[in-house]
What we know:
Blueprint: H1 3-11, H2 47-52, E1 61-63, E2 73-75, E3 83-87, E4 92-96, E5 114-117, E6 122-125, H3 131-134, E7 147-155, E8 158-163, E9 171-175, E10 181-186, E11 192-199, E12 214-223, E13 229-238, E14 251-260, E15 263-272, H4 275-278, E16 285-290, E17 296-298, H5 308-311, E18 324-333, E19 338-348, H6 354-359, H7 368-372, H8 376-385, H9 387-402, H10 408-415, E20 426-428, E21 434-436, H11 448-451, H12 456-460, H13 462-476, E22 478-479, E23 484-485, H14 497-512, H15 518-536, E24 560-561, H16 562-581, H17 585-605, E25 614-615, E26 631-632, H18 637-644, H19 653-667, E27 668-669, H20 673-678, E28 692-693, E29 696-697, H21 714-717, H22 722-734, H23 738-751, H24 775-783, E30 786-788, E31 793-796, E32 804-810, E33 814-823, E34 826-845, E35 853-858, E36 861-863, E37 867-872, E38 875-887, E39 891-895
Parallel strand pairs: 31-34
Antiparallel strand pairs: 1-9, 2-3, 3-4, 5-6, 7-8, 7-13, 9-10, 10-11, 11-12, 12-19, 13-18, 14-15, 15-16, 16-19, 17-18, 20-21, 22-23, 24-25, 26-29, 27-28, 30-31, 32-33, 33-34, 34-38, 34-39, 35-36, 35-39, 37-38
Helix pairs in contact: 10-23, 10-24, 13-14, 14-15, 14-16, 15-16, 16-17, 16-18, 18-22, 22-23, 22-24
Amino acid sequence: MSTSRRLFLKNGSLFLSAVALSGRSAWAVPPMAFPRHNIPADKKLNPAWVKSLYDRGKPTTYLKSRRELAYLGMPVGGLHAGTVYLGGDGRLWLWGIYNQSEEGKCEGIDPKTVRWDDGQEVRSIRSRDGSAYVEPAIANNKRTLEQGFAVRVRSGKQSRIKELNEADWKEVAFEAGYPVATVRYTDPDFPVEVTLKAYSPFIPLDADNSSYPASILRISVQNRGKEEVAVDLLGWMENGASKLSAKPGNGEKRNTVFRSDGLTGIFSDYFTEKNEVKTAADFGSTAFGIRNKDAKVLASLTPWPVTDSHFEGKEDVPVDGKLVGGLTISRRLAPGKRLNEDFIIGWHFNQPKTSLKNLVSDANAGYYYGTRFADARAVLTALSRDFEKLSSLTERWAETWTDSTLPHWFLERTFVNIGTLATANTYRFASGRFWAWEGVGACAGTCTHVWQYAQAMARIFPELERGLRQHVDLGVGFRPDSGAIIFRAENESRPAIDGQAGTVLRCYREHQVSADSRFLSGNWPAIKKAVSFVLAQDKNGDGMVDTPMENTLDAIWEGEIAWIVGLCIAAVRAGQAMAEEMQDTAFAAVCARFVQDGQRNMGEKLFNGEYFIHRPDAAAGRSKLGSYNTCHIDQVFGQSWAFQVGLPRVLDRQKSLQALRALWKYNFAPDVGPYIKTHVGGRPYALAGESGMIMNTNPANEPKPYGENVTWQLGYFHECMSGFEHQVAAHLMAEGMTDEALVLTRAIHDRYHAAKRNPYNEIECSDHYARAMASYGTFLMACGFEYHGPKGYLALDPKIHPEKFRAPFTAAEGWGTFSQQRDGKVQRAEVIVRYGKLRLNELVLSFSGSPVEVVLEEDGKRLPLRIRHTRDGERLKVVFDGGITIEEGATLRLHC
């Protein structure tokens, strides 16, 4: 959240006109007029429904027959290459590849203002405030480019054509997933069925090969009839060069046919002599190809509607300024046989907007993909050359991810938000620097106090997070004199205390997801200064920071605030761990004293017997906005973060559990409708009839719960923001409150059901909001996952179905599958590496027995191991003398 966001909301009267219809200031209400707490303590959840959340189930499939396809938009381009959506019926839409995103002018995937009745008045909601939540973008309204496929079936003299769209088939089924989605087209009166698989190369731990500005569309046509048929497949794609800015007379669209190593393609560019066209943000190229050297090419066709002539190679003149090229292939199919073809669409628009260049100088040299590819033809050529490798690894990861005992819906919701990296919310510049908004086009500068919640990128593409730490947070955004980390780097001048603490924790995490200690040793001087900055904010020396400073709720709060105090304790504990590894014993001791004092005083002074609170500043009292005695969603965020990086407890377990129970009791609403109708001013990220956890509630019904001088930021307290909810769900899971963790995660999942809005787009301040990537942390806690690459340490303690558990894992140099089974006193576990390698010195499992056999199998051979083992209660530690390396394809087996 940002200063510009603050002014935007204030000037837009989003909060300040929300309460009093009489014309009074929204919060200038009589002392006893603050609405009463009205979230029921008894959630009245059906026990059978709660139990069903644990079921494996099946992948979520959205159907035409249930009217669930209109809003679907899966990001199907590479990382940081703009936004291209796969729609529910398999057509691509949105085409946010033209560098449109611009704060204040072109925010969100569908920049618009909508009207929303908040229960007391009808308000204008802009893109950064949830307009796409109230009225989601509809695919058919955002088809910037003509693109699609059609299949023709000929039998005897009969010829029938169906386009791959919703209108032409009895049923279209969209099987959700990420990074691969599957669309199936069926019609009982048509002799063939069609399956489309769509993705861009996505290989965890390989950011470069996951960053193609391209989409792969694999189409399979199967003859389901009893007779042989002739099948023709046609694909088409509009020339997308200079699509937005070029005007008649500016130049000429060109389609050029090319063939290379089995690839048949159409390269689309725009020829012009006009400098204003050449320097526009949409000046570049697109390309469309098929991995078949025998395909026919139509450099120009008019596919509305598709007729037999298109399959015969007849070319047409461009219509309405659109130059559309086509590719066709023909086969005869016997009953049961398939036609399989791989199409690729690529783009290349390497001219960031001037407004972006003004925000970050790295943008002046263009994008990272521009250093790898000269144009869209080069994108297709490179991708086709390595197609088998890239596709097989992408599909291997997709299979590894879903090859789990965890519920399908849970796997979907906890992973899907990493698709944010494949939208116009994120950029990677030619220098290699990663840079992002908070949400698409809104709030610049890879904001520390937002991005610290996101757990996905660090585990899937750790090199991006390490680069962000090293070159930005400890580089251009760092103040060596004080150790302050400016929370938006060049786009700000101040640190944010929660962002500072979170970034220290991220430094420890980035060290843990490294193969060795070079990241920590190379950055330790700056990290130490960053930790010292946190220590310096404790003015009275009680281990609880008390310096007024910016935070993610866009206000400077006074006093000792539980969620900030606890977060800083966790950060300093991470600093202690890093100091110990760097053998900086003196600094480690300083950190340890702070942590000890903070733990004690936070428990004694900020816990009210039920939950943690905000103690006012002794001098200022409650004159300014704060959470004070209310129940705040992030109150034990520090302990939640500690679980993510395997730190010892930083907050008392019983008090943490009580705080979580209070959040469940006072903040989780099975239906948010009654609450948001009476507590107005928040933005619509959950609507009546939907479940969610409210940010801040007033269980004691105090007349002035948030201070004497209530400001516009109070509106945040009445919202459901999914990133915060995911953080709480992860903590609930880690503490063993699995019912509550699953219910809360499912609440978000259901809010984003395709019948209502796009399941791939969790919204806060604009679309594809970065904080929502906290969802991956819930998956990690469901696995009880801890990892430390330089130490060669891996621990797993599953929270869901531990008696028969299987799930994926990622490490510094590889990824694979972990499984365990318990059958009476017999326990077994396996670690299978499916990509890269895994170095291990210690493996810790929640096993009650002692190992009778530990075997490493590689290429069918058993390799000798030297092990020791120790016990800590139910935790079994297996130590590999000298360490082991599990190579790709190898399996480590443990039998107790």
